Automatic annotation (TrEMBL):
CDD domains: PseudoU_synth_RsuA_like, S4
Name of this chain's protein: Pseudouridine synthase
Record-linked SUPFAM superfamilies: Alpha-L RNA-binding motif, Pseudouridine synthase
UniProt organism field: Actinoallomurus vinaceus
UniProt similarity note: Belongs to the pseudouridine synthase RsuA family.
Length: 245
């Protein structure tokens, strides 16, 4: 941040990041709700370099580098979570081919699992989201055969011994039930391969179908299978916060 004519006015950077109109952003600055590189800014003449400045509004970081992109994709079943496949199967590139930037997928879903996968060209954010030390939670809907034991949630949250160590759920609930077809919601914060399938199989409930519906603060919502959307500024800020950026 500087007080010269170099850089871009802070309120313009905020407005272009989608925070609010430029006038409303001036009100945010005046109210002391904006920090730049850790310092509170309350005057409208402040200029910043969007490529390097770390800007927070109400304690949440906002994206300012215009070349960075953040997307959510509802991956269909049968699609490989890579950008290419030597066997000619459908991959993520089939759904993001219109995006000019080269994107990275944040983690993977196995081929038969559908649902939310994040894509970005923000390498630092992607690496942190995948790193186990930050423990970003993921929530899944799994179809299993009922009836469900009354103490299943307690067992999953206590922890189950798998071949590669203990695994446990952070949260569990029955989402829906029609006859013996039961949808259960499982939240956990680790990303070992096939972890949800292995966890439920170990306690006697092999998964019939599986979908990820949340990744940290980002929810799948009503995003149709095979479609992509840009993340909101709020979602990006919450992802930053989840990994301490």
């Amino acid at each position: 941040m500087n007080q010269t004519n170099e850089g871009v006015r802070l309120q313009k950077v905020l407005a272009e990041a989608g925070i609010a109109s430029r006038r409303a952003c001036e009100d945010l600055i005046a109210a002391g709700r904006v920090t730049v590189d850790g310092e509170k800014v309350t005057w409208f003449g402040a200029r910043v370099d969007p490529q390097t400045a770390v800007i927070h509004v109400d304690g949440k970081r906002i994206p300012t580098r215009t070349e960075l992109r953040y997307y959510a994709l509802n991956k269909p079943r049968g699609v490989v979570s890579t950008m290419s496949d030597p066997r000619g199967r459908k991959t993520l590139i089939d759904y993001v081919g219109d995006v000019p930037e080269r994107l990275f997928h944040v983690g993977r879903l196995d081929t038969e699992t559908e649902g939310l996968i994040l894509l970005t060209n923000d390498g630092e954010l992607a690496n942190r989201l995948m790193h186990p030390s930050y423990g970003v939670s993921k929530t899944y809907l799994a179809e299993v055969h009922g009836p469900i034991d009354r103490d299943l949630g307690r067992r999953l949250k206590k922890g189950v011994k798998l071949a590669d160590g203990f695994a446990k759920a952070d949260a569990f609930r029955i989402f829906d039930q029609v006859g013996k077809r039961v949808l259960v919601e499982v939240t956990l914060h680790e990303g070992r391969k096939h972890i949800v399938r292995r966890l439920l199989a170990e306690v006697g409930y092999p998964v019939q179908q599986l979908a990820r519906i949340e990744f940290g603060p980002v929810k799948l919502g009503r995003l149709k299978s095979g479609t992509i959307r840009a993340l909101t500024t709020k979602e990006i800020g919450e992802l930053y916060a989840a990994v301490e950026l």
